[in-house]
Structures are given as structure tokens and as C-alpha cells.
Write a structure and sequence with these properties.
The structure holds two protein chains of two kinds. Chain A has 26 helices and no strands. Chain A has helices at about 5-20, 30-35, 40-45, 55-70, 75-85, 95-105, 110-115, 125-135, 140-145, 155-165, 175, 185-200, 200-210, 215-235, 240-250, 255-270, 270-285, 290-300, 310-315, 320-330, 340-345, 350-365, 370-375, 385-390, 395-405, 410-425. In chain A, α21 (about 340-345) runs antiparallel to α22 (about 350-365). A nine-stranded mixed β-sheet of chain B has the order 15-14-13-7-12-11-8-16-17. A six-stranded parallel β-sheet of chain B has the order 3-2-1-4-5-6, with helices on both faces. The longest helix of chain B has 20 residues, at about 385-400. Chain B is globular, with a radius of gyration of 22 Å. In chain B, α7 (about 155-165) packs antiparallel against α13 and α10 (about 260-270) crosses α13 (about 385-400). By secondary structure, chain B is α/β, with parallel strands linked by helices. Classes of the chains: A mainly alpha, B alpha/beta. At the A-B interface, α1, α6, α8, α10 and α12 of A face α1, α2, α7 and α14 of B.
Chain lengths: ~425, ~425
């Protein structure tokens, strides 16, 4: 792309960016032709506007501004922007300044960035000023947010950090390193969160430097930021690096429980074969929360990874856990659990048998139909579960197995097969289904 | 016909599992067997937000045998105290000897940080949904979150990310999915209407305009600054902090994100496989509340056109519900309640076969959530679906405000070459609140 073309593209992009209102009322276009209001008159009264006053003048002005913003470089647009920014300098109500700042989002440009920024420390409108600069998404606004950040008031600084994190502004990293001290923990925590959002290698180094901070707020923020970095690495296919961070976080007893649980899940995604040991260990343990975390991790193990170690351990688990693990094999549609389900059918625990029967609807096959029909036809406590499994198990081969069983020598199984066929919406070939 | 369970295993692992049908996994025996350990043997719940919806959830879950309500939180002290008294009274009447008493908590961060809470109900005003739910998720809690899940696309994306990364369960409060509307969605998924060409979403605006509202003194016992939270400061007036917050853009998105979050949700649930590729959005003749504290849209006619040619038309001047039109007939789903009508009775009277597409069968929206807390399995209204629906609603509002044709890339969750519209996909949060 040639330089003039590039400048044109940048210019057009900027012009488009300047056209749009943020979450602001877009005005009332009808007023442009129907109202006897004037721009000068509205500007004159605006500083006194209070909540509850007639809003029609504001709607009129907003409509004028929206109209002018369609040509952001026009003298009219620039004059309106300048006039609006001027109202920040004069005594005016909060409501007036709120309206002005929101309209500057519609029509303001880099000429207004400094004028908005200088109010960042104002107790009334400071936060809104930073919000407008953030949403302007203008390079000069980002530059000022980044480079002046150590000079901000506390709230503005927090908002500035958030803004630059939201914009994934990698240039912020070197500016925030001095904000990580424990003298201002909320700022340090926000800075760490921003670094986590950016997730560059440099950002990661700064996060790691606060890993052993004494203040819990900062320590927790560092652990969460590292978790975010690890997931970002995972998204980029850098599984080994992600896995290393996840394993460290999982094994770090000083990290928050929720972060450790999340790290176990992340480790299962990054290095499923190596995570299996931890998952089984937690399923065998007696801590409710860790068992649940292990189940969550099992849920998200990539489908192409083997879950055989979990299946092999099912018999060693407490009955309630066995039932839930069988349920998870079903949720995953993971046939690695089929043999474990078969064994569980022999369990003396009703809940385990029930879970095994139900799991077959997902991980069973046509070969299980005769056994399920047997359960459904008998007086077993698992009868209802077997019926549901037969009604919901999928596959044309399952249909065929059910139809074949209608001819069973055992009348009760034959009757159950007929019932199942009806519930499944299938009829023998040549019969009219009526469906 | 293939069933939804044939979703790719890779997609499953990436966190889309919640979209998968799992109707038979958790039977009543498993629910009994998997109960929490002592002292309560139940799922310990905390409540954030105790207005209309929060009170509804509290009343319902207070009676639930699997649940123990242990803490309640609201910005109105009187609501918090009333809820605490209600909970204690209910458990006293139920004769619970080991009940330690329900904690009234002023700051939700303290509630989500408690080790004795398993899950949280977030029923705050909309502008707090994501921050409340994210705080809970990051503290290791499962979440029942009222709809719409967000007030901006980007913050919803952050919530989806948080739920996945922290491995939590999140049920969106789009309870129509747990009712008869599911069968309507299944009818569409199974192609009974043939090739769909048009879907109408009716969203009449029924809120009465409140007009301009004067500033008032903040009532004692109300933490107004906390109520505003991430939203920009605004002078206090009573209507702002009532259920009518829904008609002020700073806190919500009007009828479109309120009931739209139910109606559009069912439509999108039914249509999801057909929504791939870029979509154009056109708004016609929009109008908004005028000279009022309210500022959301009151008149709209929006057309979404998908890559397949399918059009979804959102109208204010149509009865609340959805009408699907295909080359083999039409189907209406009424909201709320899910009553179905169709061009041919056979469309709605023929049951699904085993090999048809089945959506997640929920035994009730609360029960479905509680089952997932135990099983770690999918919920009927997962965060991904909540994000899809909320995004649709936000796109409606952005198109109405900009009042021009927009092109949306659903894969990237961004507009196509439209920096101005992209800027409206997120909202800055007021300090000290932050999404990350």
C-alpha cells in the first residue's frame, strides 16, 4: 500500500470512528425541522441543566451534533466540538458536563483529547473523562492514557489501566512496572490484571515478579494474571508453556483455591496425559471441592486424549463419585467409559447401577439393547433407567436391534421391545408408522 | 437425522459442551448419592440482588430440598434484612436444628469470597450481571445469572471466558428453555418447516414513560454508589433504581434486552446451526423515549440477513413471540409459556423420534442448574447461549442508535470494517470496578 493510500485509509477509519455515539442518546431528528430551538440558545442554557429539566433542548443539540458528526472534518463539526469542550471550563452542573462529555464522544477528535484529559483528577467528572478517552479509541487518547498514567489520580489510574488492557496496548507494559509496588495495592492489582490481558512475554515477567508479594490482594491478582497468561498461551497453541504454568499454579498451595482448580482444568487441556494422574488422585480423595474440580477437568479433556486411566480407576472410587464419573463419560460421549459402566452394572450400590444404565444411552451401542431390554422387562429397580436409555440411545443399528428383539422367545422382552420401538418412533419395515 | 451429540469432540473440549443434549445423565438416584458432605448435605447458595427477580428465586429455592440459603446481599439494607428474616423463618419452620442462620452481607465481594458458599444467584440490575457473575466465577462459585448476561458484547465475552477458564457452571435465567418452547426449537432443528426463509420476533414496548425525573435525596439504608457500580455517576432519582432501570441505556437496553433476551433466545436456540457467516443488520425508522429519564428505543423494525439468506425481523408492532416461516409451513412460539401453533397440526403433534435432534432436556430451570452443580455437566442455558442472545440484542440497539446498515462477523464478534460501531461493543467501567 502506498503512503497516500495508507493515509487515506487511516483518515477514513478515523472519520468513521468519530461518527458514532457511544452509549449516548442519539438525539431526536424530528426536532431538527420541527423545533424553534437554536444551537446558540441551547448552549447558553446548558450549564444550568439539571436532572428533571426539560430534555428537549438536549435532544435537539444531540441531533445537531449527530448530523454534524457525519462530516467530522467540517468547520461546523469542529466548531461544535470546540464549543462543547469549552463548557468543561465554565461553572456548570454535573448533568451539563456529563452531557458534554458524552457528546464529545460523538464529535470530539484528537483536538479535544488534552482538553478532556486535564479533568482526569476531577472528583465529579474524572472517571467519565477517562471513559470517554477509552471509548474514543483514538491513538492520541491512548498515548496520553499510557504515558501520563503515573500522574493520574487513583480512580483515573485504575480506569486508565483498564482501558489500556481492554485495548491490548502492549506499549503499556513498560509504563506500568512502577505501579506494581505494594504501597498502592489496588493499583498494583489492576496493573497486574492489565498485564494478564496483554499476556506478552514481557508482561509475563512482570507478573511473575509479583508472584510472592506479601499482600494477599496483589498475590491473588498475580496468580489470576498468570492463569490468564497461561490460557492465552493455550489459545496460541503453546501448550507446553501453558502446561508448565498451569501445573505450577495447581501445585501452589498458596494460590487461591479457585485459581488452582482452574489451573487443573487448564492443565488437562494443555497436557491431558500428564494431568490424568492429578484428576484420578482428586477423584479418589475425600475433598468435595477437589472432586468436583477433577470432574470439571475431566469434562474438558480434549476428545482425542485418552481417558482410560480414569475409566480404570472407577471401581476404586466412592459410590457417589463412581456415579458422577460414569455420568461424565456419558456427557463426554466418551466410549472409554463403556467397560467401566459394564462393571458398574454389577454394583451393589443402586445409584452406581442407575448411573451405569443411564450412561449407556450415550456410550452404549446396539449390542447393549438386549441387556437393557432385559432390565426394562423385569422388576429391577433399574427398570425406569433402562427404559429411558432404550428410548434415547441413538443409531439406526439400535433401531434394528430393538426390532429384532420383538421376535424374542421371551414374551416380556418382546413386549418391551414393542413398547420401545413405539417410543423411539420406529416400526418394522413395511409397516405404517402413522408418524 | 444426526443428533446434536455429534458435535465435534474438539468443540466439546473447547467448552461448547453445554450445547450438547444430555437428557439421561443425572437420575434421581445420582442426585441423592452425590449430595454435599456435612454439615448441610446441601448446595449452599448465596444471593446477590433481592429485587423482583431475586425475591422470586429466593422464594423458589428456599423450598428446594437440595439447597441451603446461607447468605443474602443487596444494596438496599431493608431488602437484605427482609430476605435474611424470610430465610431464617423458613428454615426454623422446617425444623432445621443445625442451621447456623442466614448472613446479611452488604458487599457482594464478601459473599462470593466465603468458603461455605457453593453457588450464587446473581439477580442484580443488568449493568451488574457480568461483574457480579465474574467475581463469583473467579472465587470458584457456580452461578445462576439473570438475563441479559451483559450490557455490552465485550463484557459478555469476558464472562464466557471466565466461566470456561475457571471451569464453572453458569445457568442464564432464560427459563423459557426449560418449558414447552424447547419442543418448538426442536421442531425447527429437525427441519419440519423445510427451508426457513423468515423469522419474526415480536417485542412490543409496554413500559409506561416516566417523563423527566428530578434529583432526590438518597434514601437512608441504600448504597447508591454500589448500585451505580460500573455505570457512570448520575444523580439519584427513585425511578432510576426501580425495575424501570431497564429503560435507561446506562443500565440496560430497553425492551430489546429485557424480554428480547427471552424471545430472541428461543429463536436463536432453534436457529443456531443456520447462523454462521456474516450478517447484515438494518434498522428502519427508529424512535426513542423523548423528554424522559428513559432513553431506550420504543419503535423499531430491524432486519438481520444471514449468509444463508435467512432473515430475522424484529418488530415492536407484533405480539410477543416468534414466528418461523419455511417452505413447508409456519410455527408460532408464544412467550411466555411457550404455547405452540402451526400451519399444520402434525408439525406440533408428532413426537420426536430417538434419532431426531434432541435439545438438552431440563427438568426445570433451577433443578437443571442444581443438577449441573453436582454433575459438572451442561445446563440448558449456558453462558455461550446467553452471549449469543445478548449480542443479538445489543446489535439491535447499536443498529437503532446508529440508524444505518451494519455488517457483523459472528466469528470475530466484531463489525466488518466499522470502527465506529465496534466502539459500541464495550462500555468503560467506572473505577474502582474492572472486568479483569
Amino acid at each position: 500500500m502506498t503512503r497516500p493510500m495508507l493515509l487515506t485509509v487511516i483518515g477514513l477509519t478515523l472519520a468513521m470512528a468519530l461518527q458514532a455515539p457511544g452509549q449516548v442518546f442519539p438525539g431526536n431528528p424530528d426536532l431538527l425541522t420541527k423545533s424553534d430551538l437554536t444551537v446558540d440558545g441551547v448552549f447558553a442554557s446548558l450549564p444550568n441543566y439539571k436532572l428533571g429539566d426539560d430534555r428537549v433542548p438536549l435532544e435537539f443539540l444531540a441531533a445537531k451534533i449527530a448530523e454534524a458528526a457525519k462530516r467530522p472534518d467540517s468547520p461546523e463539526a469542529r466548531a461544535l466540538a470546540k464549543r462543547l469542550a469549552g463548557l468543561l471550563e465554565v461553572p456548570a452542573t454535573y448533568e451539563c458536563k456529563d452531557f458534554v462529555l458524552r457528546q464529545l464522544l460523538v464529535i470530539g477528535g484528537h483536538e479535544q483529547v488534552q482538553e478532556i484529559y486535564k479533568w482526569n483528577d476531577d472528583p465529579e467528572i474524572g472517571c467519565l473523562c477517562i471513559a470517554v478517552l477509552e471509548q474514543m479509541n483514538d491513538p492520541s487518547a491512548d498515548a496520553i492514557l499510557r504515558e501520563e498514567i503515573p500522574l493520574y489520580g487513583k480512580d483515573a489510574r485504575l480506569m486508565g489501566l483498564n482501558a489500556l488492557g481492554n485495548h491490548h496496548d502492549v506499549k503499556i507494559v513498560s509504563f506500568v512496572k512502577d505501579l506494581l509496588c505494594e504501597c498502592e495495592p489496588e493499583t498494583a492489582a489492576a496493573a497486574l490484571a492489565t498485564l494478564g490481558q496483554i499476556a506478552s512475554d514481557e508482561a509475563r515477567r512482570f507478573i511473575e515478579s509479583r508472584k510472592f508479594a506479601e499482600m494477599p490482594l496483589i498475590r491473588t491478582a498475580a496468580d489470576r494474571a498468570m492463569l490468564r497468561v497461561a490460557y492465552d498461551l493455550l489459545d496460541r497453541g503453546r501448550n507446553d508453556e501453558a502446561g508448565g504454568i498451569m501445573e505450577n499454579l495447581y501445585n501452589d498451595k498458596g494460590a487461591p483455591q479457585a485459581v488452582r482448580e482452574a489451573a487443573l482444568r487448564g492443565y488437562a487441556l494443555a497436557r491431558p496425559a500428564r494431568a490424568m494422574h492429578y484428576i484420578v488422585q482428586n477423584l479418589k480423595g475425600d475433598d468435595w471441592r477437589w472432586r468436583q474440580a477433577a470432574l470439571s477437568a475431566m469434562r474438558d479433556i480434549p476428545a482425542d486424549a485418552s481417558t482410560a486411566p480414569i475409566a480404570e480407576a472407577v471401581g476404586e472410587l466412592a459410590p457417589g463419585v463412581q456415579a458422577r464419573v460414569l455420568g461424565m463419560f456419558a456427557i463426554r460421549h466418551d466410549r472409554a467409559g463403556r467397560a467401566a459402566a459394564g462393571e458398574a452394572l454389577k454394583s451393589s450400590e443402586a445409584a452406581v447401577r442407575e448411573a451405569a444404565v443411564r450412561s449407556l444411552a450415550s456410550i452404549g451401542s446396539a449390542g447393549d439393547v438386549p441387556m437393557l431390554l432385559g432390565l426394562a422387562a423385569g422388576n429391577s429397580p433399574d427398570r425406569e433407567a433402562a427404559r429411558e436409555a432404550l428410548e434415547t440411545m441413538q443409531g439406526k443399528d439400535v433401531d434394528a436391534a430393538v426390532l429384532a428383539a420383538e421376535k424374542s422367545g421371551d414374551a416380556s422382552i418382546g413386549a418391551e421391545a414393542v413398547r420401545t420401538a413405539e417410543k423411539r418412533g420406529i416400526m418394522p419395515a413395511g409397516a405404517s408408522s402413522g408418524r | 437425522m444426526s443428533r446434536e451429540v455429534k458435535i465435534s469432540r474438539r468443540a466439546f473440549a473447547r467448552g461448547l459442551a453445554a450445547a450438547v443434549a444430555a437428557p439421561v445423565v443425572l437420575g434421581p438416584g445420582l442426585v441423592r448419592a452425590a449430595g454435599r458432605p456435612a454439615p448441610s448435605g446441601r448446595i449452599a447458595l448465596g444471593f446477590i440482588g433481592l429485587g423482583g427477580r431475586g425475591s422470586y428465586h429466593l422464594d423458589a429455592l428456599l423450598k428446594h430440598p437440595q439447597v441451603q440459603v446461607v447468605a443474602v446481599c443487596d444494596t438496599f439494607v431493608a431488602r437484605t434484612e427482609a430476605a435474611r428474616a424470610k430465610v431464617n423463618d423458613a428454615y426454623a419452620k422446617a425444623g432445621q436444628r443445625d442451621y447456623a442462620g442466614c448472613l446479611p452481607i452488604a458487599d457482594f465481594r464478601e459473599l462470593v469470597g466465603r468458603d461455605d458458599i457453593d453457588a450464587v444467584v446473581v439477580a442484580t440490575p443488568d449493568h451488574w450481571h457480568v461483574l457480579g457473575a465474574l467475581a463469583a466465577v473467579r472465587a470458584g462459585k457456580d452461578v445462576y445469572c439473570e438475563k441479559p448476561i451483559s450490557v455490552a458484547v465485550a463484557e459478555g465475552r469476558e464472562l464466557v471466558r471466565g466461566v470456561r477458564e475457571y471451569g464453572r457452571v453458569l445457568q442464564v435465567g432464560t427459563q423459557e428453555r426449560s418449558g414447552p418452547a424447547r419442543f418448538g426449537a426442536e421442531i425447527i432443528r429437525n427441519g419440519r418447516l423445510g427451508k426457513l426463509h423468515t423469522v419474526y420476533i415480536g417485542l412490543p414496548v409496554q413500559a409506561k414513560d416516566c417523563g423527566p425525573q428530578k434529583e432526590m435525596p438518597i434514601p437512608p439504608g441504600f448504597d447508591y454508589n454500589m448500585w451505580l457500580g460500573p455505570a457512570q455517576y448520575a444523580p439519584y432519582t427513585k425511578v432510576r433504581c426501580s425495575g424501570a432501570f431497564r429503560y435507561i441505556y446506562d443500565y440496560s437496553g430497553g425492551e430489546i434486552t429485557d424480554r428480547g433476551a427471552h424471545v430472541a433466545d428461543i429463536a436463536l436456540w432453534a436457529l443456531q446451526p443456520q447462523l454462521a457467516g456474516p450478517v447484515t443488520i438494518e434498522a428502519k425508522d427508529p424512535a426513542f423515549y423523548s423528554n424522559s429519564l428513559f432513553d431506550t428505543a420504543i419503535r423499531y423494525h430491524l432486519t438481520f440477513t444471514y449468509a444463508s439468506g435467512l432473515r430475522i425481523i424484529v418488530q415492536h408492532d407484533r405480539a410477543r413471540g416468534i414466528r418461523f416461516e419455511g417452505d413447508r409451513g409456519w410455527l408460532n412460539i408464544a412467550i411466555h409459556g411457550g404455547a405452540l401453533t402451526a400451519s399444520d397440526p402434525a408439525i406440533i403433534n408428532t413426537p420426536l423420534g430417538a434419532n431426531d435432534v434432541h435439545l438438552h432436556r431440563s427438568p426445570g430451570h433451577h433443578q437443571d442448574f442444581l443438577n449441573a452443580v453436582i454433575s459438572r455437566g451442561p445446563v440448558v442455558a449456558p453462558v455461550e447461549g446467553g452471549q449469543l442472545t445478548a449480542t443479538f440484542c445489543h446489535l439491535c440497539n447499536i443498529a437503532l442508535i446508529l440508524n444505518r446498515k451494519l455488517t457483523w462477523d459472528p466469528g470475530r464478534e466484531r463489525f466488518v470494517n466499522d470502527a465506529a460501531a465496534d466502539r459500541m461493543l464495550y462500555r468503560p467501567t467506572r473505577a474502582p470496578w474492572r472486568l479483569t
